[in-house]
Input
Amino acid sequence: MERLMKFGFVGVINTLITMTIYNLLVALGVNYLIANVIGYGFGTINSYILNNNWVFKMKSNKIGTFIKFLSVNILSLAINSAVLYGMVSILDFNKSIAQVGAIASGMIVNYLANKFWTFNIEEIKEV
Output
């Protein structure tokens, strides 16, 4: 339960980073899908650092862990972007509101894949 709460806290921080960058870029006239990729990228960097060092406390195989983490986040970004596109371009949602729904769409997949694959529980050394 503690790990889930930490992961959730990191998720809130990542969401704030992603949303801030996304909304700033959209306000500056950047296409919303490009702004999404850039904002998501910054959130992903923060997520890797905090999840690797604080939530899951990985002590070995940093390159392998990073490749797995990146793969999970590319999948999550694809889900996020598809939902964002659908909400904005098909359903005509506000871009900022749609971004909240898009972020939520990939959270469960992201958590489960990171917990059971990227940061494999058997490899975690509890401190």
About this structure: Residues 123-127 have pLDDT under 50 and may be disordered. The two ends are 16 Å apart (CA to CA).
